[in-house]
């Protein structure tokens, strides 16, 4: 079997059919790939949708478990996979029809550890078609080179496919019970890779949903997200220290790019702080903790991607914490009245 696709799902009845429709409409023999569905303790109708697809397609299996979270579920999928390559996709996203063959052709012909591809952020749910354009010559580089050259690469696991033998040799696992559980994993797995390639073709569809986890207004949820942002900054810092101790090629550039990603995450954390009903002294404690690992104030942030006037203004306010405190309650009031939209 050439490919295993791992699809964890939790209360995904509104999305799962679309995701599975995209995965089953591929120009590959069913014997060449399997789709592993893992129900992570859903309480909705998602399991029924999964079973319907399983009954129609002989290459789909369904596994059920008590809720363990995305990281733990992906690790279970990694153990269940039998294919030469493994792909992890979220149940609320989908891919273009008849594109997996393109990726497998490169993976098998060039013997890659990792192949990456572009994503198309969209609020549309029917962008299944894809017209292949000439790709040209794409170089094979090490994972270190890729991390050093690509400051703005995404850290989620759904934009690349991994060679299973290579993955098992690294003994790497997704973080469990963590926010952005694939962020550290992605960096670490590229650090181990000798042969990587990135195809500039938008195969993946990242569905922007107004009801996503990042738009949840529940105060307990927002409090957890803020804590997770802080945790991620500390995990990035730990990873940076680990890389600094090793004699690896392009270490300085890789560390610089990880610091940039950490800064970006803290920038977006500020919008959660506005939505979170906690006192200024509590916010002051959070910022003081971030100062200890030099991710606040935000530095080397404005640049080729984050250069919009709104971003420059908000970053200036966030970087001057007493100015931020001054604007905090008016911003909360405007958000409540829906006069402003926060990330």
Automatic annotation (TrEMBL):
Q: Any idea what this protein is called?
A: Glycosyltransferase
InterPro entries annotated for this entry? Glyco_trans_2-like (IPR001173), Nucleotide-diphossugar_trans (IPR029044)
- Kindly state which keywords UniProt assigns to this record, in alphabetical order: Glycosyltransferase, Transferase
Residues folding into a coiled coil are none
PANTHER family in the cross-refs: GLYCOSYLTRANSFERASE, GLYCOSYLTRANSFERASE EPSH-RELATED
Q: Which organism is it from?
A: Hwangdonia seohaensis
Molecular function via GO: glycosyltransferase activity
The Glycosyltransferase 2-like domain is annotated at 4-135
One Pfam family, please name it: Glycos_transf_2
Main EC class of this protein? transferase
Q: What is its EC number?
A: 2.4.-.-
């Amino acid at each position: 079997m050439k490919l295993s696709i791992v699809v964890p799902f939790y209360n995904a009845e509104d999305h799962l059919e679309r995701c599975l429709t995209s995965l089953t409409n591929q120009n590959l023999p069913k014997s060449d790939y399997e789709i592993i569905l893992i129900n992570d303790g859903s309480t909705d109708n998602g399991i029924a949708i999964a079973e319907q697809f399983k009954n129609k397609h002989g290459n789909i299996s369904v596994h059920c478990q008590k809720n363990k979270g995305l990281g733990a579920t992906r690790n279970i999928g990694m153990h269940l996979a039998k294919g030469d390559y493994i792909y992890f996709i979220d149940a609320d996203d989908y891919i273009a029809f008849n594109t997996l063959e393109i990726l497998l052709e490169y993976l098998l012909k060039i013997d890659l550890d990792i192949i990456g591809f572009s994503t198309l952020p969209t609020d549309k749910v029917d962008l299944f078609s894809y017209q292949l354009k000439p790709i040209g010559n794409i170089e094979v580089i090490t994972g270190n080179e890729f991390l050093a050259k690509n400051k703005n690469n995404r850290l989620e696991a759904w934009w690349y496919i991994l060679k299973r033998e290579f993955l098992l040799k690294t003994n790497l696992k997704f973080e469990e019970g963590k926010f952005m559980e694939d962020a550290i994993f992605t960096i670490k797995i590229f650090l181990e890779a000798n042969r990587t390639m990135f195809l500039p073709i938008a195969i993946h569809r990242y569905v922007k949903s107004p009801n996503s986890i990042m738009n949840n207004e529940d105060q307990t949820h927002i409090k957890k997200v803020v804590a997770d942002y802080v945790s991620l900054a500390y995990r990035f810092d730990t990873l940076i220290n680990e890389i600094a101790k090793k004699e690896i090629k392009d270490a300085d550039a890789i560390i610089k790019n990880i610091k940039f990603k950490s800064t970006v995450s803290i920038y977006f954390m500020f919008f959660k702080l506005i939505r979170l009903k906690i006192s200024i002294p509590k916010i002051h404690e959070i910022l003081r903790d971030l100062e200890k690992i030099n991710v606040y104030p935000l530095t080397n942030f404005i640049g080729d991607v984050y250069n919009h006037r709104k971003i420059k203004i908000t970053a200036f306010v966030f970087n001057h914490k007493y100015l931020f405190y001054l604007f905090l309650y008016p911003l909360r009031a405007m958000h409540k009245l829906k006069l402003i939209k926060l990330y």
